């Protein structure tokens, strides 16, 4: 019998939130060391065996790397895995040679090998890191970690919390199922798991205190699961999306985070001592469950009214798109179950299942889908002609979202991963400020590996 989140929530002893937090590696004058290797961790908790995983620094998620805006990140990486790997610094503006895409921007790091990553940190925000070699399998085995770049003048809060959202496909002994690359996952919704986690564990309750203000950084590290979180009894303010500041605004409904996406929230805790409030994931209506619960302690409130301090973040120094002089490019997504591939291509159990503009690369040899000159503005329209959700991720360049489904967005919004609904569309704009070959792909990693990836060449 496959483990389900509902069974785990009712059959697992409560875990303290602090026990589930990833340890931090703060930058010093020299390089931060980071190693990937097999490990065993307790994903499910009491009554279940530890799970064999691959991990950075021996923990899942890996160490939260913390720097300050304007620093230079230096990471000395070693590969203790039985296969080659790389690290991609998701959402960070880095030189092409540091982007971590094998056979495109760097060679793979072999077993026992090492690589030194070094790059200036232009932007403050919540980012993350993960492999880009055999990524669907390596990420599903546990190779994820947060990368936090702190603002020079961060907003005043009482606590800064990190929630790394994960999703695991486990059997009844809490072992990872060895069905990686299954055609059903590749052609449908991807490798959806049966055990969502918070910071690598099932966290029944997160202790909070009445009257305090939290900065909550959320990162979706799942292969395929989209989270739709409802903070019951609370009214969070959104202050950043994908690491980039936005005009602070109340969260309308639930917070939807696709694989690869992040959000920074300000949460003023206005409940009463002793109260409990669920955080519910309802993105898949027939699989609604409680992710965790905000558990108010018995202490007297820290303050009687919300903290009177600004929450607006300073904008990052992103180049402004010149829409009048932009190069325009449509990117049409086709294929998948209940769809078809263009140009007479046929789906086979080995793939491809998806195509971008009629191209469906399945290996490392990819010709550029788009070629532009350095410094040009690119306006790109994604058209999702499929029956499935696709979070499209662009390496190297945060982009401004202009329209969704033909309608202008309500406020200025910069992203690096845009979630497209079935038969939906989005128009984005960015400045191609760094030369090189850059990946564009779906962050449902089984979709990426089954044809939904392309190269943007900046010359």
The CATH superfamily of the largest domain is Cupredoxins -  blue copper proteins
Largest sheet: 7 strands, mixed
Query: What is the helix tally?
Result: 5
Distance between the termini: 53 Å
Count every beta strand, where a strand is a DSSP E run of 2 or more residues. Answer: 32
Task: Walk me through this protein's architecture.
- It is a single chain.
- The longest helix has 7 residues, at 5-11.
- The model is unreliable at 1-24 (pLDDT under 50).
- The protein is built from 5 helices and 32 strands.
- The chain has helices spanning 5-11, 17-20, 135-140, 183-187, 445-448, and strands at residues 24-26, 32-41, 51-56, 64-68, 72-79, 88-90, 114-120, 125-130, 145-150, 159-168, 195-198, 206-208, 213-220, 227-231, 237-241, 244-250, 255-257, 262-268, 276-281, 289-296, 327-335, 354-356, 370-372, 377-384, 390-394, 399-404, 407-408, 414-415, 417-420, 425-431, 436-442, 453-458.
- The N and C termini lie far apart (53 Å).
- Strands 21, 22, 24, 26, 27, 28 and 30 form a 7-stranded mixed sheet that branches.
- It folds into 3 domains: 5-150, Sandwich (Immunoglobulin-like), CATH 2.60.40.420; 159-296, Immunoglobulin-like; 323-458, Cupredoxins -  blue copper proteins (Immunoglobulin-like), CATH 2.60.40.
- It is 6% helix and 40% strand.
- Strand 15 (237-241) and strand 16 (244-250) form a beta hairpin.
- It has 459 residues and is mainly β.
Strand and helix map with partners:
Blueprint: H1 5-11, H2 17-20, E1 24-26, E2 32-41, E3 51-56, E4 64-68, E5 72-79, E6 88-90, E7 114-120, E8 125-130, H3 135-140, E9 145-150, E10 159-168, H4 183-187, E11 195-198, E12 206-208, E13 213-220, E14 227-231, E15 237-241, E16 244-250, E17 255-257, E18 262-268, E19 276-281, E20 289-296, E21 327-335, E22 354-356, E23 370-372, E24 377-384, E25 390-394, E26 399-404, E27 407-408, E28 414-415, E29 417-420, E30 425-431, E31 436-442, H5 445-448, E32 453-458
Parallel strand pairs: 1-4, 2-5, 4-9, 10-13, 12-20, 21-24, 23-32
Antiparallel strand pairs: 2-3, 5-7, 6-8, 8-9, 10-11, 13-18, 14-17, 14-19, 15-16, 15-18, 19-20, 21-22, 24-30, 25-29, 25-31, 26-27, 26-28, 26-30, 31-32
